[in-house]
Amino acid sequence: MRIVVLGASGLIGAEVCAHLLACGHQVTGVARHIDRAIRRTPQVRWLKIDLATATAADWASPLTDADAVINCAGALQDGPADSLAGVHLEGLTRLAQACQAAGVRRFIQISAAGVETAPGAFSRTKADGDAALAATDLDWVILRPGLVLGRAAYGGSALLRALAAFPFVMPAVHAQAVTQVVAASDIGRLAEALLAPDAPRRLVLEVGAPEPTPLAEVLKGLRAWMGLKPAPVLDLPPVLARLTGGVADALAWLGWKSPMRSTTLGQLAHGVRVRPEPLLAEMGLAPRSLADQLAQTPAGVQELWFARTYLLKPLLLGGLSLFWITSGVIGVISQQPAEHLLTSAGFPPALASLAVLGGAAADVLVGGLAAFRRTARLGLLGMIGLTLSYVVGAAIWRPDLWLDPLGPMVKTLPAAILALVALAILEDR
After folding, report:
1. Taking 70 as the threshold, does the pLDDT of residue 31 lie above it?
2. What's residue 406's pLDDT?
3. For 168-179, what is each residue's pLDDT tens digit?
4. Which range of residues forms the domain containing residue 376?
5. Is 207 in contact with 272 (CB distance < 8 Å)?
6. Residue 186 lies in a domain
7. pLDDT-derived band of residue 73, with 50, 70 and 90 as boundaries?
8. CA dihedral defined by 48, 54, 58, 59, rounded to 10 degrees?
9. What is the b/e burial string over 328-338, where b = at least 16 CB atoms within 10 angstroms of the residue's CB?
């Protein structure tokens, strides 16, 4: 069959595509960012389309000769690059209309557990989109998975790994909140099964392991999976969650999509519960338990490295940004002493002043660029370039600074190395 998968580069969408390919289907993957996806999975026909803004004309090519659509696209929270209503309701409605016009009957919608009762704009727009799809005459099936875990880690699943690998204790908010996990690969297996001609249609199915699992037990399972010694779970007060969520929400406007935003924390507080019995009755498919998922996907050292560096990443980027901005401000405040270092090396006063103010401006610039997700890579590269220029310049005009007992030049090298590390772990998926 020819299947169009939206959100195909995401945690769930990638697993759906992998399972469809393994079953011999032809897959068209739709996503907003496809450059890496093309290199990772060249077997998929990739198209760059934003569901939130796509028109009927944008869907004409993908839906031509398609047999089914699987929508895995979603957004967590409104922000500069995300619109909940645009993705979950308006874009979905236009897509469903395009499917009707193109004669594509089968439509599988990946929604989320608890959207009809959970508070917040995420759940409300998801529920509204599900209702809009259900009002069409398409052969739709809406899947509402619980807490999704996968081989890859992104968003909430990445955060859980990081908390599980925390040294000495495992910090968690709402540690006793009940969840029901589901493997992303099980969603892919179920989505493919729903493409069969005799598969059920026009129904809502909740997807998750039968047994409810407190969040604390999920963390314990992940910690053991990574081969770490047991550690107690530190149940943090809810007020800390609100503060953390507020900070993460603010950082989202700089382009950083933290899983600790208020929407995620609110969903955890509400719990992630499903009723998998209808799924078992309709499809005869039982999602795997947490223990089975982990046992069947052994962890290696790369999972441990990822978990241990995940929470260090914002500290690293924020620290580097603040370091360089502060360095530039100090350069302006201490302009005269800095100019004296250059004039004593033979620089004309005007050139020394220009070099000091120019260097200060460059420091502030690279620090500011690193603070924004879209320009972070450019800022980090600039930090490395400026460090090398300062090192070379000092070696030529003021080599005595290398012997300064406070080591001002020696201390610049670790900053460049940290910028290299930040570049290496910059990507989220």
Report:
1. yes
2. 63
3. 999 988 888 888
4. 314-424
5. no
6. yes
7. very high
8. 100
9. beebeeeeeeb
User: Is 391 among the domain residues?
Assistant: yes
Alpha carbon 144 to its chain centroid, in Å, reads: 20
Cα 161 from Cα 222, distance rounded (Å):
6
d(CA 205, CA 190): 10
Residues 6+ apart with CB under 8 A from 166: 231, 311
Residues 296 and 382 in one domain: no
Report if residue 429 sits inside a domain.
Answer: no
Same domain, 194 and 165: yes
Hey, which residues does 2 pair with through a beta bridge?
Answer: 26
Same domain membership, residue 350 and residue 276 = no
35-44, 228-237, 304-313, 400-409: least confident range: 400-409
What's the domain count of the chain?
2
Which residue matches tokens 């509402």? 144
* CA separation for the pair 26, 320 (Å, rounded): 45
Q: How far is CA 162 from the centre of its chain?
A: 13
Q: What is the pLDDT of residues 209-267, one digit of tens each?
A: 888 889 999 999 999 999 999 999 998 888 887 888 888 888 888 888 877 777 777 77
Q: Is the dihedral of CA 146, 147, 152, 154 positive or negative?
A: positive
Alpha carbons 289 and 115: distance in angstroms, whole number:
22
Q: Are residues 254 and 358 in the same domain?
A: no
All residues at 6 or more sequence positions from 387 whose CB lies less than 8 Å from its CB, including other chains:
412, 413, 415, 416, 419
Cα distances (angstroms) measured from residue 178 to each of 94, 204, 216? 36, 22, 9
**What is the number of other CB atoms lying within 10 angstroms of the CB of residue 310?**
20
- The answer to pTM > 0.85 is yes
Give CA separation, 197 vs 1, 62, 67, 192, 373, in Å: 11, 22, 11, 11, 45
The pLDDT tens digits for 375-427 are: 999 999 999 999 999 888 888 888 877 777 666 777 788 889 999 999 999 98
Task: Report the sign of the C-alpha dihedral through residues 196, 199, 202, 208, in that order.
Answer: negative
Please report the pLDDT score of residue 2 as a whole number. 97
Question: What whole-number distance in Å separates Cα of residue 136 and Cα of residue 101?
Answer: 12
Residues 220/165, Cβ–Cβ less than 8 Å:
no
| Residue ending a domain, choose from 281, 310, 339 | 310
